[in-house]
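Q: For a teaching session next week I want to show students how multiple molecules come together into a single three-dimensional assembly. I've collected the sequence lines for a complex. Could you give me the predicted structure tokens for the whole thing so I can convert them for display?
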Amino acid sequence: MSLPALQRLRPAEVRDIAFGPGTLCVGLSRRALARLDASPPARVQMELLFSCLVRKRLLADDEIPSAGRYQARIGDALEISFRPVVARHCDADTYARGQPLDDLPLAEGRELYPRWVFLDYHQGRWQGDFGFSST
Amino acid sequence: MSETKKLAIIATKGTLDWAYPPFILSSTAAALGYDTEIFFTFYGLQLLKKRLSLKVSPLGNPGMPMPMGMDVWFPNLALALPGMEAMMTTMMKKKMASKGVASLEDLRELCLEADVKFVACQMTVDLFDMSPSDFIDGIEYGGAATFFEFAGDSDICLFI
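A: Of course. Below is the structure for the complete assembly, covering every listed component.
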């Protein structure tokens, strides 16, 4: 599977992995590929914040506050997870400072999960983008 | 009456800025378990097009923040110059992306994944000579009666 939204980011390699109730299309840059199986093991998390806007961000390693709703492994040393959250307060400043976020209590049968993620490893940290659109 | 809460939204605007509220509110509500339906009518039908090419206009929009304090010193009439709308649209999209705001395509997909029901106003589709082939898959066509069937039992009903 290769999604147009992911292809626009020109990944060096694309992999499909089982993720939650479906499949996640993973695009990797050359730097990400080179780093993929390096030690120590690393973690990235796709966070989706439902607030007055819906915001997404990719967190890495010690930025990750808690386990995600779904987890999977890309290569031997990289774990990826997805966490939908809600803010206790709708305030841009406190959000930027890393305010506490609560897990979004997803209703039964409402299985939201990203369809694609693009990962790069730059300046010593994992970076990237993810999305839900298949177009 | 069902225990499940219901949210009904009428989406009537077809600009970039006004496209966000229906999709944000409905995706959040649906994720929380609400039965959610959006009735798209008039310019709101633009939100259902396969290729979203929505724009934001600074004209007649004094609340729109602009870079470099342009909203204060830039003559209002100059906002009508060719290219201003495209420039403002590009700037707003870049601002949204830089702040990590999910794209409209993402939000629309989230809604569909969360079983938000999209209803396109059939009469408006006819009025504007639009074709169902212009729109994404998975939507229904109906009129006011179709909407009231759902909205009549809703807990929250919003006109956007």
